[in-house]
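Can anyone check this?
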Amino acid sequence: MCLANFFVAASATMVLPFLSLYIETFGEYSDAYVQRWSGFVFGITFLIAFFVSPFWGRFGDKFGRKKILVITGFGIAFSIYLMGYVSSVIDLFVLRLFMGIVTGFIPMSMALISSQTKKEEAGRVLGTLQMGTVSGGLFGPLIGGALADSVGFTYTFLITAIVIAGATTVVLIGIKEVRTEQVIKEKEKRSMVEVLQLIIQNRVLMMVMIISFIIQTANFSIQPQLALYVNQMMTVENVAFLAGLAFSVTGLGNLTATRSWGILGDRIGHDKVLLICLTLAGLFFLPQAFVTNIWQLVVLRFLFGVQIGGIIPCATAYIRRAVPLSVQGEVLGYNQSFRFLGNVVGPVVGGIISGYWSITSVFYISSTLFFFAAISLLIVLKWQDSHVNKSSANV
């Protein structure tokens, strides 16, 4: 499952290095046209996924999570295969839109593994699974760029589609889903409105959703500006490479720490690890506004990535503990929707902030978001503890 998540996550980001170049092969376009449609084509996948993720989660809870994994896996492979044969930017846009519709594989895999795992081990197991997702997103652009240079655009899409279809076939044959009697025979079925009420009424759970959004927004807010920021610090020819290094090293830090954070969450509580990671993320993000050379930036972004590595598995593990198995997939779908929304909002907000003020202002405001989330989570946890103590006293 970890390997399948790697290839699916890589497929979402592999087009980054050559997307604008691929669009240019469709005809004679201006630079502004290519840049605009590159943003549209890349962003539409995450925007559509934001809306449909809860539905995939709900279908998985009802019909079985493995079935949804297979449907979405082959759906992604099919859309990527067709991308290699499009002849216009509109065709590519439509296929990326379709890819967003079937992008329920990763949250569904986490829901499946979570439901098959003991609550006491959820952090460690989900942290291991997250390593596949993070490494896929990290190496996706590298794999895509290398393949495009070696075999061309069409074969890059074809090879990627075959690999994802193969990984999905392995899931189909090799993964067995055990559905508990509690889920199969459960008489009380919740509507989507009731599931939303469940999330809203649980203040910590709602805060976890907001944290997922804040993390993605803050992390991606600096992405479009990073090359310009690096260029301001130094005058070298390989600015694009150094900017890519500065951004990718965050994923490397994430990859190295995510399993350890999950294990720590199993020991001391996933909500406590979330609080620690949010605070440290803000502390390592803010100094990036004051760096004077590229290597200071790389080190700080690596340390920032280490903190991000604890948030996703611990958020998922908390949901595993707090939510009934019968609606776990749907709730994880909502959590994934908040993350997808952050993927879309982050670059837009970062661009607006840097346009009105400066690039360093992005670091200030995003750091403030981390500290705000940490303080809010602390307040909610204190409220929950006092509420539980009052309830115990009344009993």
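Reply from J.R.: I decoded it. Residues 1-175 form a domain with the Growth Hormone; Chain: A; fold (CATH 1.20.1250.20).
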